[in-house]
Amino acid sequence: MSWKDHLPAVRGKLLLDEPLAPFTWFRVGGPADVLFLPEDEDDLAAFLKGLDPAVPVTPLGVGSNTLVRDGGVDGVVVRLGGRAFAKVEPRGDASIYAGAAVPDAILAREAAKAGIAGLEFYRGVPGSVGGACMMNAGCYDSETKDVLVEAYAVTRCGERLTLSNADMSFSYRKSARAAQGDLIFTGALFRGRPDDPAAITARMDEITARREQTQPIREKTGGSTFKNPPGHSSWQLVDAAGWRGKPYGGAMFSPLHANFLINTGEATAADLEGLGEAVRADVKAKLGVELEWEIKRIGRP
Known about the structure:
Blueprint: E1 13-19, E2 31-37, H1 41-50, E3 57-60, E4 66-68, E5 73-79, E6 88-92, E7 95-99, H2 104-113, E8 116-117, H3 129-135, E9 138-139, E10 142-143, E11 148-155, E12 160-164, H4 165-168, E13 170-171, E14 174-175, E15 183-191, E16 193-194, H5 197-214, E17 220-224, H6 234-240, E18 251-253, E19 260-263, H7 269-287, E20 296-298
Parallel strand pairs: 2-5, 3-5, 4-20
Antiparallel strand pairs: 1-2, 6-7, 7-15, 8-16, 9-10, 11-12, 11-15, 13-14, 17-19, 18-19
Helix pairs in contact: 2-5
């Protein structure tokens, strides 16, 4: 008998051998052994507490910054969705709560409506609140660490935690606490500053216009592929190494923005990851700079 025959009872959904490609922006990747869609935080905590500790658990957000490999993912993939994880609630004192499944752009919009400034940059982040906590997401000189008050999570053993900004140990595109790999974020509280909603919205419109002009936002992409090395811009390094717009199977670095890896139509995960690794090797050989993946790659080759 398999561990799949002894899964804890849930109120949400448990899907066996479920394809993950439809859940990612790249639209590639193999199946999850088990995909769990919890009904709410109680359902998630009870499931994790009752699950065999030997079974790996992988959280998956909106799939904007994730490459699922073609062989699929071992163990249980947890994807938060539905009303329980999609709440957005202004809390007074220029603060606002958002569930982990809330897209960052929606958080920015709701903060603007509530007259909360400082979260406009989320309009340009192609992800969700849970992912923002995982990787200190940011753009245009602002990051999650600048606005997060506290984050809420459930551990692998089903314990609920409230983590302060300091607890998260944020650095560039990383939370050292999240990197320990035992957390699934369920929501977060942010604080900005009071401002006129129209003024905030105008600034967000500028961010939207800038993104549309400079990024391939309508392609099957994962956002920024590589972190910016100290003193360098990744897109300039990819461009200088000659990889902008150069096909590699069904993959390519966008002609519009050379740090955006795109599925041109029929790419496999192996195409996308292979191109990324080829570019990393070429940049190191030609320019002497080490590129580090920003996109999270999960699963079996």
